[in-house]
Amino acid sequence: MSEERSLNFLEEIVEEDMRQGKHAGRVLTRFPPEPNGYLHIGHAKSICLNFGLAQKYNGQTNLRFDDTNPTKEETEYVDSIKADIQWLGFEWANELYASDYFDIIYAFALTLIRKGLAYVDDSSPEEIAAQKGTPTEPGIGNQYRNRSIEENLRLFEQMKAGKYPDGAKVLRAKIDLASPVMHMRDPIMYRIKHAHHHRTGDKWCIYPMYDFAHGQSDAIEEITHSVCTLEFVPHRPLYDWFIEQLEIFPSKQYEFARLNMNYTVMSKRKLLQLVEQGYVEDWDDPRMPTISGLRRRGYTPNSIREFCERIGVARRENMIDLSLLEFCIREDLNKTAWRRMAVLDPIKMIIRNYPEDQFEETYSENNPEAEGGDGGRNIPFGRELWIERDDFMEDPPKKFFRLGVGLMVRLKSAYIVKCEHFEKDVDGNVTEIHCTYFPESRSGNDTSGISVKGTIHWVSVAHAKTAEVRLYDRLFQVEDPSNEHGDFKEYLNPNSLHIIPKAYIEADLDHAEMGKGYQFMRKGYFTLDKHSTPDSLVFNRTVTLKDSWVKK
RNA sequence: UGCCUGAUAGUAUAAUGGUAGUACGACGGUUUUUGGUACCGUUUGUCUAGGUUCGAAUCCUGGUCGGGCAACCA
Q1: Each residue of A262-279: pLDDT tens digit?
Q2: What is the largest CA-CA distance in chain A?
Q3: Looking at the DSSP assignment, which residues form a beta bridge with residue A468?
Q4: ipTM of the complex
Q5: A63 phi, psi to nearest 5 deg
Q6: Model confidence pLDDT, tens digit, residues A448-461
Q7: Which nucleotide is nearest to A214 (CA to C1')?
């Protein structure tokens, strides 16, 4: 039953390692976010990859916060990251922090200094940049490069002791200023930052750089496969160099292409701008590609995991169609979401031959896709109904299977009606549609012999509840906003949010549960917004239904 | 013009020297009390030029095009 699926390149690496008996077949990965923002769908790819890879080979995954830059990191982000990973359905083996290793990493630095492989440099950032050269010209050394081991030891200890202000000195690896690889030109290992750290408080005033923290943390945890995105490829020689010189656990770094998706942006920097400058409500605005935004929008963990599975893993740059994400959530919700009726843009229908004060109940199953319909509910029906404005046309075209004078449709789970007449106001807007119904066409025991092409949804005027409904569209008008001229924010879609203050919904939706998806028949999938209250319901549209009817 | 990377339908992703396949999209059809779902079908592809080979998407050489690298960010 298990279809033979081909391995992605990382699975092949792991299997090859196992074949060779590396690490005795042990697999330990890690997911290493910096707690400086909220996780987005691109992180979901990395999470599914790291946790999935370990799971597949009976290994484990550590959650490690890469918190080496105290000025950008906050506990709020730590909490949201943990919540998002758990929501996605993954469990980490250990919750760890790079900052937990500051003492060890400091000792590592001393080791390198003693080996003559690191030195304290008093140059300014500008001087260091200038001395680094360019990709085509080699860099040059300075007088600090030849300091004695003793002097370096003393100065570095004084850096740690807080003797110098920010920027006065750095600790650099002594490698090769002429290396064709820019990252090997004596990279900075430690900088001075008199800043409060979200975990270590004021204990430290020097902090290791990424390159002297990440691989070291991997080694300390004995990570077997350190998987990251392609932009870290140039760092790999350095990653290996530090590990080799330090003679610590030989973790290996592997890189894959990060997720890009059209009609959105995926960098924390840009997402932060949208939040801070008020273009969206917050990190969890349902238009955001963040995990929390998708969750609020109504995406399920299952759909996101499925999406990550389908996009695959490779080293080639990619741009994934938003339509694939939408396919995944529709596929999931179609199987599970209860169907309900809701009229978003109402117009009144009057059934002339249905008695004025008469009502009846009609039964409808919750989900035709599920076994036994997943139960059902009764829906009140009467003479006056709300129907969707665009289910009626004054001059219907040839294949319009809805209402127009003389046309017939079935009211879902109820009767077939025929449109006899309509009324307009002075501005020419249609205000009422008058129909007659066929009593013998009742859903379930239709003996009318009439067959109609269209079925429309409706809500009884006398019983309808109301709700605010928020419709979302793509955040940007162009496929790749970051690649356009000028500021990416110029390409925001002005119609990404459309609020319907008062939609008429089936009374049963009173019992809608937070976190559950509902299909508003023929309209899409919806879910309760976090700001919804029993007295004033608010629904977010997760995604529309696929619509293959093209208007001419 | 230094170093590192990559190139297979519109978008992704397989084929590991032996029939270029799958998914999403698009288009068309069947079924349907959701113009949904399901099912069926159609469409379009190995960047280029040479070479090795009985045989190349795959190996070799040269080109072309794309991405990345010069933060006291990660």
Answers
A1: 999 999 999 999 999 999
A2: 102
A3: A538
A4: 0.95
A5: -100, 115
A6: 999 999 999 999 99
A7: B74
